Amino acid sequence: MSSYALGLDYGTNSVRALIVDTADGREVASAVFGYPSGVEGVILDDRDPNVARQHPKDYLDGFVATIRAVLAGSTVDPKDIVGLGVDTTGSSPLPVDAHNKPLALDLPQVIEFSSSDAARMTWLWKDHTSFAEAAEITDIADSLAMPYLAKCGGTYSSEWFWSKILHCARVAPEAFEAAHSWMEMADWIPAWVCGIRDPKLVKRGICAAGHKAMFHTEWGGLPSAEFLGQLDTRLEALRGRLYDEAHSSDQIAGYLSEEFAALTGLVVGTPVAVGAFDAHMGAVASGVKPGVLVKIIGTSTCDCMVHPLSENLPDIPGLCGIVPGSILPGMYGLEAGQSAVGDIFNWFVKELGHEGHEALNEKALELTPGSSGLLALDWNNGNRTILVDPRLSGLIVGFSLHSEAAEVYRALIEATAFGALTIIRRLEQYGVVVSEVVNCGGIAEKSALVMQIYADVCNKPMKISRSAQTCALGAAIFGSVVGGAHSTVSAAQVKMTGVKEQVFMPNQEAVEVYGRLYKLYMELHDAFGAVSNPSLGHVMKDLISIREAARA
Length: 552
Fold this sequence. Notes:
- The protein is of the alpha+beta class.
- It is about 40% helix and about 20% strand.
- It is built from 20 helices and 20 strands.
- It starts with a strand and ends with a helix.
C-alpha cells in the first residue's frame, strides 16, 4: 500500500506544507501560508534595523491552513500519512510560560512595533539586537578558558539563543521574568501540536541545541550554571528550567493531538519528528553525505556538510557548529553560512535597481567577469562565516560615472560567490574535503546567472537538488522515518532524493579572472574584517555608531 509523509517548512516569511510519497520522493501536493503579522511576517522597528521578531500565532495558523490545503488539493487519505516533520528558521527562540504557552500568543497580530510586546514574541534568526551580549559571551568564555565556543567556531553570534535571551533580560526584564522557559521555534511547534504543555517534557532537537545554545555531551549538555551566572544570575536560574538532553530528528517528538487532528483533518496520534533547522533538513533532502557540501540559498545561505563520527575532526574557527547528529544521525553536522544573499539582491532591485530581477539578470549575463571594474563585500546583514560579526556592513569599490545597474547587480552576486568560496577554503584548510557542491533553494532553481558565477568563482561544478522544496522534503523524510516507512534517514535519502541533470561547469577563462578578483576581495575582507594589520575594522562600526546617534 502507498504511504506518504508530510513536511512543514517554516521560513522567514511563510510556511509551506508538502505531501511526499515515501516510496520515491514524489511530491504530491504543497501549499504556502504567508505570515500575516508585521512586514511579510516580520515585526520590525523603524528606529532600529537590528530588530526582527515574529508572532507565534502565525505558526499555528499556518500549520492548520497549509495542511488543510494540501489534503484538499490531493487524493491522499490522511490515514496513509505515516508521519510528519517540521523545520524552522533558527536560532529563533521564544519565551513560554509554565504551561509551554508563548507569552505573545494572546497579543494582537499587529504591524506596529512595541518594545514590551516585541520582547514577548519570537526573536527571529536575523534579529541582531544582541550583538553586545554575543561579544560578552565570547569574552567571558575566553577569559574563563571555558570550552563552550570550541564547537561553534570560537565566536558566539547575536543570531543565537543565549545572546538573545540575555538581551531580553536587560532591555525587557518584565518579559524575561514572565517567562518560565525559552523554546526554539523548531522545538516548540512539534511539542505544541502534540499537546505537550510542560516545557520540561519537550524533546529538544540537537540541531538547535548544539549549533546555537552551546550544548555538547563533552561538557554535560548546556553551559554550566557557573558560567551563565558570570553573564547574569538570571540565566543561571533559567538553566534549571531548560533541558538536559537533546535528540536527533529521527526520533519522535510526540503524537498529533486531538485538537490539531480536528483542525487539520489529520489522524489523531500521527507521529511527529523532533524539529530541526530548515537548512539542515534541506541538506538531507539534497543528498548530503561525506564530501558533499550543500548550499541552501535563500534570503541568506546555510552551508551544510557531514563527517563520520569515527574520523577525527578538528574544531574549525568561524563555523556555526560541529555537532554530532545535527544533520544525519551518526555523523557530525557542520554548518556555515552567509547572513544575506537573496536579501542583498532583493534590496538592490527594490531600492536602487529600478528594474526587476529578470531584466537585470539578462543584462548581467552579457557582461564578462571583471568588465565592470566593481568589487563588493557581501556583508549587508553582517558576516556569519568566517568572521562572525554582525556589526560589519556592505561595501562596493570601483564606482565611476559610467557604472550601470546591471554591473552593480552582477558585482553583488560575485561578492556572495566570493563569500561562498571563503567558506569552502576554511573547511578545506582544516582537512574537510569538499568534493561536490549541491545547491538548493529558489535562487539555485531560478538563476542560471548565479549558478554560473558560483561555478566560476569556486572553480567547482554546481549541481542543483532535484526538489524545488528541499527543506519541506527534508522534513517529510524525517516524517517518513518516525512513521516507519524507512528504517534510517540514509535509507530514505536513497529513495526520496536526487539532483537535476543540468550541471553548471566552471569556465576556465572566467576562473582565472575571478582568481585575481578574489585576491582583492580577501584584501578588503581582511582589512574591514579586522583580520589584517593595519586594519580598517573600525570604519564600518564607527559608521553604525554615528548612524545610531543620529537616529536617537
